[in-house]
Amino acid sequence: MNDTQQQYDVLVIGGGPAGLSAALVLGRSRRSVLVVDAGEPRNAPAAHMQAFLSRDGAPPSDLLAAGRAEVAAYGVDIVGDSIAEIDRTATGFTATTTSGATYDAGRVVLATGLRDVLPDVPGIRERWGRDVIHCPYCHGWEVRDQRIAVLATGPMSAHQAQLFRQLSDRVTFLAGDTDPDAETRTALEARGIEIVTGPVAELVVEDDRLTGVRTGSGAVLPLDVLVVGTRMEAPRDLPDRLGLEMTELPGMGRQVTVDDMGATTVPGVWAAGNAADVRMQVINAAAAGNLAGAAVNMDMVQEEVRLAVQQQASRTTA
């Protein structure tokens, strides 16, 4: 081990709700824990997070700041960096960060979240998390009764339109170049959801506010909110390097395959939050991190029991 290499019981990769929750459980179990966080949370564009009991409407950054302070109180180390390489060793794993630091750990919790792959329409990325949204449970209340258009990007888009119809009676389904099948069209029209076909060329923004979308024909459809279904992708570099099995969710994205407690297909590696379930909101990710942290600790306890029994047997036969 070189001078810059440190040994931890657990390396948590990602310092969002899932990673910090896992670190909290492990820190309280008197494990040595390192959290490596690149500082690129998925919900950074959002001013507030919703549907988190007792934290509804709080800025995401406030939750992370509070979580960092809590885990630090239990001796958890946090570094602002990202993992460039990770390899299995005889005793666990060795990880090297982009800054060149190297860490050894017996176990790994992968909580790297995911990234949203946005539709290739001019203006969407600049408005993302503001008046271009994707989740009725995250943002729906805030856009209730407004003019909402749902941009078709996959098989779940019509379902999105039905969810937002619960929140406003002014919902339009932008079907693009596809023609909804008869069943989908009937369901949309039955609830008064207008269907507009043809491509969307760009967003129309005035005074830093979305006011409509311009179609391929040049016509402008007035609206206040655009809903898009993103393709949600968990980072692949670390899972691939660790040899983790991945699961493809049709129309949604890829995620690490885990069991009910977050264990991956590779011994010693757990995954939690959006890395393991692209559908999770903040509160779900925090809960998954809690479960994964407990599972990691139990795995370590079982190993400690096994070693203690072996040592006792050795002393008895000596």
TrEMBL record:
Residue ranges constituting the FAD/NAD(P)-binding domain according to the UniProt record: 8-289
Official protein name in the record: NAD(P)/FAD-dependent oxidoreductase
InterPro entries the UniProt entry points to: FAD/NAD-bd_sf (IPR036188), FAD/NAD-binding_dom (IPR023753), Ferredoxin-NADP_redctase_2 (IPR050097)
Catalyzed reactions: [thioredoxin]-dithiol + NADP(+) = [thioredoxin]-disulfide + NADPH + H(+)
Pfam families linked: Pyr_redox_2
Swiss-Prot/TrEMBL keywords: Flavoprotein, Oxidoreductase
Statement: the UniProt record of this protein carries the keyword Metal-binding: no
Source organism, top-level taxon: Bacteria
SUPFAM superfamilies with a match to the protein in the record: FAD/NAD(P)-binding domain (SSF51905)
Claim: Flavoprotein is one of the keywords in the record: yes
